[in-house]
Amino acid sequence: MNHFAKIKEALIYIDNHLAEPVDYEFLAQRFHFSPYYFHRMFSIIVGKTITAHIRDRRLEYACVLLSSTNNKVIDVGLDCGYNSAQSFTRAFKNAYGFFPNEYRKNGLAPSIITVDEIIMKFTNRLKGGIILNPKIIEQNSLIIAGVSGDGNSTGEVWSAFEKLHSEQPLVNRISDNGYEIRVYEGETSTVHVGFAVSDKHVSAPYILYELPPSRYASFDVYVAKGYESENNAMDEWLKTNREGYTQKLLGNAYYCVEYYDERFNGDDTGSIVEIWVPIEKS
After folding, report:
1. Within 13 Å of residue 25, how many CA atoms lie on the same side as its CB?
2. Of 19, 69, 109, 126, which alpha carbon lies 20 to 30 A from 154's?
């Protein structure tokens, strides 16, 4: 099941279990994510945290029950996950400015966005396959042990690294997350691919590539929805934000880092690659 499908299934699960205690750790385990990445992906796609979404969803469905049934207010609250009339009434008033019985008396009609519409709203925020609101992150220095080669033959470079690592595993790798450093010099580019290692003690023919501590604009790129268009999209963001940030060079060359963690799954619909563009204050 791809990442989009998992988030959609999680959204459906939430809607079907509003009366039950549900949190992001439970959902992450149920849909086979680490809690960190599940919470992060959910927030990106839905536009709010899991806790906020569950709260809003419970109140939205409470509106439905208030407008379409004669159920007591306390029963509506219990059906939507609240353990007392007081907690339900307080949450409802904070959200809508009405008490539940006032909402019912005024004959207000609820409007609830469907799960499919939530997913559609997210895909409409993509330009090609990239979200144009990057996170600004700080990274310490990195040592990447791997293989270097022609930027026009990236697949071959990765294949060479995978073959090398199968024969001589990197015992000092920090994780199994992959890095691709792409360096642009004029009309040509080179790539270095591999794993981050804790120190420089690696055997030949591994090549070490070091990145200094840097600030990056981190873009989430959805591979199946326009991976080839990310350069133009990132250039547009840099142009729009030129009064705040400029692209930082490595020596005299432009570069970027592609980061492959557990969210990457080849050409799968929900497969994500992070693109890090080094930046500095203008």
Report:
1. 1
2. 126
Give the chain's domain count: 2
- Using DSSP, state whether 238 is helix, strand or coil: helix
CA-CA distance, 19 to 7, in Å (whole number)? 20
158 and 102 share a domain? no
pLDDT of 177 over the 60 cut: yes
For 121-165, how does the pLDDT look when each residue is reduced to its tens digit (9 = 90+)?
A: 666 555 555 555 678 899 999 999 999 999 989 999 999 999 999
Tokens 């804790």 map to which residue? 198
pLDDT tens-digit readout, 94-103: 988 889 999 8
Token digits for 110?
A: 């609820």
Q: Within 10 Å of residue 81's Cβ, how many Cβ atoms?
A: 22
Question: What are the φ and ψ backbone dihedral angles of 171, each rounded to 5 degrees?
Answer: -75, -20
Can you give the residue range of the structural domain that contains 115? 3-124
What is the predicted pLDDT for the residue at 214?
Answer: 94
Do 265 and 2 meet the contact criterion of CB atoms below 8 Å apart?
A: yes
- Residue 244's nearest CA partner among 82, 105, 136, 162 is 136
**62 and 193: one domain?**
no
Q: Give the whole-angstrom CA distance, residue 262 versus residue 41.
A: 11
Structure tokens at 191: 């790539």
CA-to-CA distance for 59 and 82, rounded, in angstroms?
10
Q: What is the rounded average pLDDT for all residues in the chain?
A: 85
pLDDT for 1 equals 43
Boundary-marking domain end, from 102, 124, 146 = 124
The predicted model scores a pTM of 0.59
